Amino acid sequence: MSIEYYKRLIGNRENIADLLAMPGGAAADFEIPPLSRELAKPADLS
User: Is the predicted pLDDT of residue 45 greater than 90, yes or no?
Assistant: First the structure.
């Protein structure tokens, strides 16, 4: 099956990003917590 035939077969569908988008989602407020300076902790090998 060629890509051209496949595209004709499936037609014009919405992509996954359009299907998962939340209406008004861009207006949602959220806060990102600050990162701690200690990103990795040393392993306790005792």
Answer: yes
Q: What pLDDT, on the 0 to 100 scale, is given for residue 25?
A: 65
- For every residue of 16-44, DSSP letters joined together read HHHHHPPTTGGG----PPPPPS--S----
Taking CA 27 as the corner, what is the angle to CA 22 and CA 28, rounded to the nearest 5 degrees? 75
| Cα(39)–Cα(37) distance, integer angstroms | 6
- CA-based max dimension of the chain: 64
pLDDT, tens only, 10-26? 887 777 787 778 776 66
